[in-house]
Amino acid sequence: MRHTELPWKVEFKDTNGHGGWEITHGDNRICTVYANIVFSPRKGHDLYRDKRNNESISNAHLIAAAPELLEALRPFAQYECGCGECHNCIAKAVILKAEAV
User: Fold this and answer.
1) pLDDT digit string (tens) for 47-80?
2) Which of 29, 68, 82, 91 has a 20 to 30 A CA-CA distance from 10?
3) Is residue 51 within 8 Å of 40, Cβ to Cβ?
4) Which long-range contacts (CB under 8 A, 24 or more apart) does 90-97 make?
């Protein structure tokens, strides 16, 4: 299986009041991680991010880094021994999970 080519980037988009972080490659949207945006008059009518939004931002960046993380695991996976517990076997299992169709 082949993923969208790199680089992937994260940028905030607010469409009709439904804000989220889009993971994109060029003009193509790969996916969107939606956010809890809260209107706060105390903050000068600005939108602010709560704890959940910090998680949303982190999730978006993790998704955007996924292809590079996958490639970083490949050298370890070639030395898997079959025990299912060492770093090499875990790397192999993660690669299989990521490439599942």
Assistant:
1) 545 545 778 888 899 999 999 999 999 999 999 9
2) 91
3) no
4) 94/70, 95/70
- In the numeric block, the tokens 């021994």 are attached to 81
Spatial CB neighbours of 87, under 8 Å, sequence gap ≥ 6: 76
Structure tokens at 41: 């008059």
Q: pTM score, two decimals?
A: 0.74
Dihedral pair phi/psi, residue 64, rounded to 5°: -65, -30
> Residue 93 and residue 56: Cα distance in Å, rounded?
26
Residue pair 91/73 in contact (Cβ under 8 Å)? The answer is yes
| Identity at 92, one-letter amino acid code | K
Residue the block writes with tokens 């299912």: 84
